[in-house]
Design a protein that fits this description.
Length: 605
């Protein structure tokens, strides 16, 4: 609670940070484990197998057949979840964008894979670190088969684990004390991008929320001081199980009928005896700037408990809901892969483009967990978070055709309506807008032009007012932390990140664009809502509308240039010639393509 209070932005002062960017000390966005064997994942073209389902099929239960678990399907999983999706270039400067967004594009989130033997990877079960720049898996530890089997006993056949950690320094380098919040947002986005990537393959995913953080740190190897001697440390965040969904009911090992939300501590226990590979690379020249407040929130939100909960798995997931308005016409629909690859944050909005009420309602329907208390019957991707929805949306509607501009509220769990009503201004209207689909708990609170207000509240960023709508995510704050424990603080941010990830893709599918907003003035948002205590807090803002593209930026395709460079360097070695001083040896031509050897690679504007 103190951390949250201390890291609020106020009109009169921002949360503490250095106040300038120490460019000489900028952390490398790519972690590598030096000395660890590297297994390249195949670089798949969009049409290569496993191909992508239609974007809309992600939300049609049972529409996607389960892909076999191979190195190719794993490549797709990581491509859609965390890979580089483009390089941007302005003048001499180039930077990578990824399938998952990140506050400040700093990408604190690292990912790990613990999986049984897969042809093309290490023989036997193993823990890997995902190397995004190479789209490859680094072998971190080999697991004895018996021990791996014991660890995943009780999970569906072919189940494997994906774990996330955060390099807090990557965020604190820029954002100082508020960095912990951004790391947690980014974890939520990564959970979302991984859950949606798994869905493209017909796989399910569930966060193992009962695991204690010490167990998680040991599992991922981020507690191994000897491997991080000169390197910036990683904070263990979470681990999830993924499994092919046609392996659901009746196919569980030992005749079990549920999925555990925990890992047997004795099976994780002495991973120190495993064969470990590699040492973490150093990311910055100087040491990380120390922020005591960050150490304190890490300690306060550390999860020491293990809950041995099992969720029932007696069906294949939610049935099709005929009343669900969230379906777009099938003709001309994009594939999920296309939407994921093209996802970008808008840097500016045009201040004119509206969206239709139907699009708006579809987007909001997609962030509804279809709040069954039965976890695995929830709508994708809400079946990944094993807790009751605790985040609601305060919406600033600017340009939605058919809706009056103003302040709206979406109660993502209708059971919390009474609490939301009593925490907010008594004079709010609470009327259902015209055309609102049955069962969508959306309410107009107050009519009015909220464009300037929304921008003002989001750190005076025009993107919150020039869009079609923007929003603040109101989390059930103190009550949920009192109920679960202080570690739930992180979960609240993960839920907001997942909402953001769904909305990012929804915006692309609807022909507009979105941007996450981590910078906002916390208490002024609460004042607008009339919230005067810690029952609800705004944790994350978001905006969606017609984007303005920056013509100064060139977009380069991912991975091909690096392969092009590697090929060209190999040629220099072969010919004993002097390598080019350029970072890559292709050249741009006016047709906006790059030549690599004999081939011409087109680039997006
Ligand atoms: C948690 C979070 C907070 C963000 N906050 C802001 C913000 O306050 N203002 C802004 O213009 N962009 C913000 N962004 C957008 C990022 O700058 C953007 O994701 C990043 O540059 C990577 O670009 P991409 O989303 O196109 O991949 C935020 C993104 C995330 C995930």
């Amino acid at each position: 609670m103190r951390y949250h209070l201390e890291t609020k932005h106020h009109f009169s002062r921002f949360a503490r940070s250095l106040g300038y960017l120490d460019w000489a000390n900028q952390p490398d966005p790519f972690r590598r484990y030096q000395g660890a064997p590297l297994f390249a994942l195949p670089l798949l073209k969009p049409a290569d197998a496993p191909g992508s389902p239609l974007y809309e099929d992600l939300y049609r239960p049972g529409a996607i057949a389960s892909a076999p678990l191979t190195v190719r399907s794993l490549s797709r999983l990581f491509e859609y979840a965390l890979a580089i999706s483009a390089w941007k270039q302005a003048g001499e400067v180039r930077w990578a964008l990824r399938s998952n967004p990140s506050s400040g594009n700093l990408h604190p989130t690292e990912a790990y894979l613990l999986i049984d033997e897969v042809a093309g990877l290490s023989p036997g079960p193993a823990l890997y670190h995902y190397a995004a720049k190479e789209h490859a898996l680094e072998l971190r530890a080999q697991w004895p088969t018996e021990r791996f089997k014991r660890l995943l006993q009780g999970f569906p056949p072919e189940a494997f684990l994906i774990g996330f950690s955060s390099i807090i320094w990557r965020e604190s380098w820029k954002y100082g004390e508020r960095a912990f919040r951004y790391c947690q947002h980014d974890v939520g986005h990564a959970i979302g991008s991984a859950r949606i990537a798994a869905q493209t393959l017909g796989w399910r995913m569930l966060l193992l929320d009962g695991v204690a953080d010490d167990t998680l740190a040991a599992l991922l190897g981020v507690d191994r001081a000897q491997d991080f001697e000169a390197a910036e440390r990683e904070h263990p965040d979470c681990v999830a199980v993924i499994w092919p969904s046609n392996q659901a009911a009746g196919a569980l090992t030992d005749g079990a009928s549920g999925v555990p939300l925990f890992l047997a501590a004795d099976a994780v226990g002495d991973v120190t005896r495993h064969i470990w590979h590699g040492r973490a690379n150093r990311l910055s020249r100087g040491d990380p700037v120390q922020w005591e407040m960050l150490d304190q929130v890490v300690a306060a939100s550390w999860k020491s408990s293990t809950e041995q909960r099992v969720v029932e798995l007696n069906h294949e997931g939610p049935g099709a809901d005929p009343s669900n308005p969230a379906t777009r016409p099938v003709v001309g629909q994009p594939s999920a892969g296309q939407v994921i690859r093209q996802r970008r944050s808008a840097v500016a909005f045009d201040g004119t483009t509206p969206i239709s009420a139907a699009s708006f309602f579809t987007m909001l329907t997609r962030v509804m967990p279809a709040a069954e208390r039965d976890l695995l019957a929830r709508a994708m991707p809400w079946d990944v978070l094993p807790w009751e929805p605790a985040v609601h949306l305060a919406l600033f509607v600017h340009r939605v055709d058919g809706l009056v501009p103003g302040l709206y509220l979406l109660a993502r769990d209708p059971a919390k309506m009474a609490a939301l009503r009593s925490a907010t201004r008594p004079q709010f209207d609470w009327t259902s807008p015209p055309g609102c689909p049955d069962g969508l708990p959306l309410f107009l609170l107050q009519e009015g032009d909220a464009r300037a207000l929304a921008a003002e509240l989001s750190c005076r960023q025009a993107i919150a007012g020039d869009s079609a709508f923007s929003l603040g995510m109101l989390a059930e704050f103190e009550p949920s932390m009192r109920r679960h424990g202080p570690w739930f603080y992180r979960r609240l941010f993960w839920e907001t990140g997942l909402i953001g990830q769904v909305l990012y893709l929804e915006a692309e599918a609807a022909g507009v664009r979105a941007t996450g907003i981590g910078c906002f003035f916390d208490d002024p948002v609460h004042e607008v809502m009339g919230i005067s205590d810690a029952s609800f807090q705004s944790l994350y803002h978001f905006t969606t509308g017609g984007p303005v593209l920056d013509p100064r930026l060139t977009t380069l395709p991912p991975y091909v240039l690096d392969h092009c460079m590697a090929r060209s360097q190999a040629a220099h070695v072969r010919n004993n010639s002097k390598p080019s001083t350029m970072r890559w040896t292709g050249s741009f031509d006016i047709a906006h393509s790059v030549r690599c050897g004999g081939s011409k690679i087109p680039m997006a504007p």
